Amino acid sequence: MLKTTLLFFATALCEIVGCFLPWLWLKRGATPLLLIPAALALAMFVWLLTLHPAASGRVYAAYGGVYVCTALIWLRVVDGVKLSVYDWLGALIALCGMLIIVAGWGRA
């Protein structure tokens, strides 16, 4: 379970970086050369999703819970936005949903 969770967090980080870099280019006037590492990050994101043994729909559903947590951590660390109790509670609920789905992978 820990390995799967860490793999999901790495996957989410790749997806966020892959989307954040083009955002920097389009919204903040950063260099278009950022599209190269963005494409690499998104390719890594797709590859990491394939490393899970479950059916793709289950992987995507479970991944969504971790993505919510990772996006909120990104919001705090990178964007400097203070998270509310509701943010933390929502992240906890999403993470619990992921854990429930992953716990059932071998039983479905």
TrEMBL record:
Topology of this chain in the membrane: Multi-pass membrane protein
Listed transmembrane segments: 6-26, 33-54, 60-78, 85-105
Pfam families per record: UPF0060
Family: Belongs to the UPF0060 family.
Signal sequence, renumbered to the chain: none
Organism for this UniProt entry: Kosakonia pseudosacchari
Keyword list, A-Z: Cell membrane, Membrane, Transmembrane, Transmembrane helix
Protein name per Swiss-Prot or TrEMBL: Uncharacterized protein
Compartment(s): Cell membrane
